[in-house]
Amino acid sequence: MTNETSSFDALRQQWQARWNALAPRDRQIAQAAAAVVLLVLVVFLGIRPAWRILQTAPAQLREVNTQLEQMRRMAEDSQTLRRMPPVPPAQAEAALKAATERLGEGAHLSVQGDRATVTLTKVSGAALVDWLGEARASARVRPLEANLNQVEPAHYSGTVVLGLAPGSAAAR
Questions:
Q1: pLDDT tens per residue, range 57-95
Q2: Backbone φ/ψ region at 95: left (φ over 0), alpha (ψ -120 to 50), beta
């Protein structure tokens, strides 16, 4: 460690001797150049990244607020559905059957006890979203399991298991 310290001291002394040998005007030019380099480093490493964040923050804030509003609407919808009275299983099955028939030949409904399994083949994503909304609102069923795969762009195949009896999804 003393060897490194002594070589550092030697280099510092050499630099100090060269600095003292410079004319006062040359020292001022070197100091000004060092100040400019320091200023450039502060701007590029400190101010510029912060400036970029300030420029992108309003757009990110709008996006977050939009997502928050969507989440609030979804929470309100959920609360509305929870407050609705349960549908008797026979009526729920009939409503689910009607909703599934609207999907066409790409959907098959199978009911066993308090569960319904819907097998989907190449059903469009929009139709699937509409069907899930209708099944939830009119039949008051809750999805218990979903195994869906995208087989074509915006078309899905797979199965969805739904609970018909009130509270069947909460038990899981």
A1: 999 999 999 999 999 998 998 888 778 888 887 888 899
A2: alpha
